[in-house]
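FIELD: query
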Amino acid sequence: MVIKINNNNKSEITCKFCGSLDVAKKGKRKLVNDIRQMYHCKNCISSFSLGINKKRFDVWIIVKAVCYYNSGYSYEETSELISRKYKLNIGKSTVERWVKEFSLGYLNIRDKIIKKYGRKLIVEKMFQHSGLIYNFKLHKGKLKEYGKFDGLRKFLFSVSKGINNEMFNDQSERCSNIKKANISVDVSCIENTRFNKVVGEMLKIVKNNKQRHSLVENLLLCCDRDTVAVEVPVWYWDKINNKGICGHIDIVQVKFGKVWILDYKPDCEKENYNSVVSQLYNYALALHFRSGVSLSDMKCGWFDSVKTYCFEPSEVVVK
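FIELD: result
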């Protein structure tokens, strides 16, 4: 297995609010125990620093506020909803700051999506498999906009209506438990992208590590332009070994003309490459059988708050 590292953007400073690289230094701010360098974004005319922003609100309040706005509410309406529901005093300027801080391109298509599909954009279905609860969700607006992969769209909408749970039993093997030592593929690594940084900023204020997966999935579904579904159940029958294979894909995206299968791993570098590649490869096979999308039209990857590793499932060789 070959790992290729891309460090081209490692030292670049991007705007916290819009992701632009057109950033310049703008003086320094004196804090109680520190002096912080300030920056000015020429694209969105925002000022910011690179210090950790220690928010006083629970992380789920922030996610709820961002999701309300991205589903069609105004900043003022979102502020009123959050304040009334959670008995908190949150101004519309605070909501606007959160929305911009955790934007991953969705703001560019938000108005178009809402105009065409309304406010009820998230469709969800709960599944109980092997004693665990999985909350499948899809973004109706984004999914309908990506017309190239009609089979994917039909499959995901069918999942929202329910599936046959027979394959998700003790007799089937989960993708995450399959460990093939004889699997080979080239894996590339990209560091410090806007995608990684936004995930990292959100995770800084997570108080409970058990929340991480659900938090990342909800954040991407509402704020990311490319994420169309999360916690997607997939399955297929392995004819060679005469057994069922099943699993739940953390994140499904449509970007760069391909369907991306992504898995959030809290620390990418500690993962066993053969194991995680095997897991994602089986996700790809299962999604191929369910949706008809070819492996050559897919890309697989795993990520944390710093790095994203990815590979082409069509190039996997199992010896």
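FIELD: remark
Residues 155 and 291 are 6 Å apart (CA to CA).
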